């Protein structure tokens, strides 16, 4: 790829997304095939309609970006506003994200103080307080956002609590799956893999009242990666 081709290529990316980031150019000059594959993945992940409305999709994105201190993703603010999102709803995004990040306070009590507080249930208290924190926004989307935040932060006990509460409140599984996938870029693929495994194991253990297709996914054996396949260790998580 010569200099003129590079310039045209990067302008195509800018025209498609409305912005350009440094890694686009770096991949273009060094690994153009990787950039094409990356762009296709990002397009499917972030731009192609799947299960969530554009508004709800961007609601989740904002929670993820806030949780990860992701300064550069400000184009999602515009997308949220363009999809009808209001600043009042941003208040709910902040509350949900902050509350999910603070879940460890409830974990602390659950892990260390229960001998002194036998009559309380920190997990139930968390779920009730979370429902209040969601404000006037969709409780289902709030759960999706919080599950994605827990995934990004690697808070696996928080994710387990959130999944139980999400199912108790009838959260749509396909929408939840889409929301978790958004954590793949800001939160890392390994965290996304771990979150999927936790969700799968909870379904397989009968902790979540999953739909038939999600139960079928959970029942498939041999999903523990290379170590399990080679007999080095059991399944992860």
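Q: What amino acid sequence fits the structure above?
A:
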């Amino acid at each position: 790829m010569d200099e003129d081709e590079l310039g045209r290529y990067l302008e195509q990316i800018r025209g498609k997304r409305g912005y350009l980031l440094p890694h686009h150019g770096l991949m273009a000059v060094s690994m153009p095939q990787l950039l094409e594959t990356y762009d296709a993945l990002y397009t499917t992940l972030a731009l192609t309609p799947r299960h969530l409305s554009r508004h709800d999709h961007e609601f989740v994105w904002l929670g993820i970006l806030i949780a990860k201190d992701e300064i550069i993703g400000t184009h999602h603010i515009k997308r949220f506003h363009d999809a009808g999102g209001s600043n009042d709803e941003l208040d709910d995004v902040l509350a949900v994200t902050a509350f999910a990040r603070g879940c460890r306070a409830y974990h602390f009590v659950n892990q260390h103080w229960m001998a002194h507080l036998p009559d309380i249930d920190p997990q139930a208290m968390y779920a009730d307080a979370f429902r209040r924190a969601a404000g006037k926004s969709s409780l289902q989307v709030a759960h999706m956002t919080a599950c994605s935040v827990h995934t990004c932060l690697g808070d696996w006990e928080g994710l387990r609590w959130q999944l139980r509460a999400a199912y108790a409140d009838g959260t749509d599984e396909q929408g939840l799956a889409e929301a978790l996938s958004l954590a793949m870029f800001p939160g890392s693929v390994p965290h996304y893999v771990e979150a999927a495994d936790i969700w799968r194991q909870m379904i397989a253990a009968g902790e979540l009242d999953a739909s038939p297709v999600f139960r079928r996914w959970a029942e498939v054996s041999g999903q523990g990666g290379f170590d399990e396949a080679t007999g080095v260790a059991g399944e992860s998580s």
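Q: And what stands out in the fold?
A: The chain has a mean pLDDT of 92.
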